[in-house]
Design goal:
The protein is mainly alpha-helical and 380 residues long. It has helices spanning 3-13, 16-23, 42-46, 72-77, 100-110, 124-136, 140-149, 155-165, 168-180, 187-193, 195-222, 227-248, 250-253, 264-274, 277-289, 296-302, 304-318, 331-337, 339-358, and strands spanning 57-62, 65-70, 93-94.
């Protein structure tokens, strides 16, 4: 290469103006990026937020535990958490009157820490916790999911949950199951149901059997049985009251002595206080064989366990009659007997149904509902 040309090129490379031209294309230290503002970080300008997976977090205190979780599902499933929008993720907010175990179960559903197929299932207790909080916070989709998951619970559990969280079908079908099933109500079940509901169910069961008994008696008369056969039939039934009482009340009758009184319930109370076997037994038989069912006032005086035993004794004696036809459908009796309770639970259930109809608004990316579609312009 020509020596003059080499010298000229070297001179140009060492020129200050050449250095300035090269550096002018790059930002100097301390200079802001072209579109950066005080409210918009540079990373967001160069890398736009993903519409689905750029999640904002919130810090929540439940009992003695601090949680930090995405806001996404709280904003998506419930209108009660709009206060989460715009708050700093490191500023804790306390959720009052919430059980920590219930909240952890809800988070386990909303934010699973495992991918399929390793994801653990939720227990019945956890689904119950989810139903509790989803009902409280009007998370209709999660509430429906919990109701579906709990369909295999016992009817007793469904009745208790139906009362608490406004699920009318569970309540009505649960009561129907107790009325129509073969086995009697246990004392433990009666305690869980409560004395009033348990007594109502026992009385509906008894009413169905009484109608069958009346039909049997009518048939005995209609078919013109001779008096001896009819007397034998009625004698068998009468004796069944005594045997049913002896069977149900054996533990209470053991070691007690005898006296009579006027009111059967009063005689039961007196005989127990006096350790009087014969009076106690006669009073129980009178309560078992009388036509009128045990009233709630009488049940309150007798106590739950004694009431349930007397009702079972009455039922056993009625079961001694042959069943010529299927027993009556108990739906009408259940609806009328539990009308007030059904009305209250149905009103709660209707609230969730109304909420379900109006909560079908499409969820905007970022979890901010309808208003999130309109982006705010950053202030300069």
């Amino acid at each position: 290469m020509n020596r003059a040309i080499q010298v000229t090129m070297m001179a140009m490379s060492d020129s200050p103006s050449s250095e300035l031209d090269t550096r002018s294309a790059l930002p100097m230290e301390g200079d802001p990026l072209p579109q950066e503002t005080a409210s918009t970080p540079a990373a967001e300008i160069l890398n736009p937020k993903d519409g689905k997976y750029y999640l904002e977090f919130v810090s929540l205190v439940v009992e003695d535990r601090l949680f930090k979780v995405p806001k996404h599902h709280f904003l998506r499933y419930s209108g009660q958490f709009q206060w989460m929008q715009g708050i700093e993720e490191d500023t804790p907010h306390t959720l009052e009157n919430i059980d920590k175990a219930d909240f952890q179960a809800l988070l386990k559903l909303m934010y699973p820490l495992y991918t399929l197929p390793d994801r653990p299932g939720l227990s019945s207790a956890e689904w119950t916790s989810i139903l509790k909080l989803a009902s409280l916070w009007m998370m209709i989709d999660l509430r429906n999911k919990a109701i579906e998951a709990l369909h295999q619970q016992t009817w007793l559990q469904k009745i208790i949950l139906g009362r608490a969280y406004g699920e009318t079908n569970w309540l009505h079908n649960g009561y129907t199951n107790f009325v129509t099933r073969q086995e009697n109500l246990s004392i433990e079940e009666a305690q869980d149901l409560g004395l009033e509901a348990a007594l109502k169910l026992m009385n509906i069961r008894e009413e169905r059997l009484q109608r069958n008994r009346d039909q049997v008696r009518h048939n005995l008369t209609s078919y013109h049985y001779d008096s001896g056969q009819a007397a034998d039939s009625y004698s068998t039934v009468t004796n069944s009251y005594e045997s049913a009482v002896d069977e149900e009340m054996l533990d209470e009758l053991t070691g007690v002595r005898s006296k009579r009184g006027s009111d059967a319930v009063e005689r039961v109370i007196w005989a127990k206080s006096q350790n009087n076997l014969e009076s106690l037994r006669l009073a129980y038989i009178e309560l078992a064989e009388r036509h009128d069912v045990i009233s709630f006032e009488e049940a309150s005086r007798l106590g739950l366990a004694t009431t349930i035993k007397i009702c079972r004794a009455r039922e056993k004696s009625l079961q001694s009659y042959p069943t010529y036809t299927s027993l009556i459908d108990p739906s009408g009796a259940i609806n009328s007997t539990f009308e007030e309770e059904f009305s209250v639970v149905s009103a709660v259930c209707d609230l969730y149904r109304v909420r379900e109809k109006i909560s079908t608004v499409p969820f905007a990316p970022g979890g901010r509902g309808k208003k999130a579609k309109k982006q705010r312009t950053p202030q300069r």
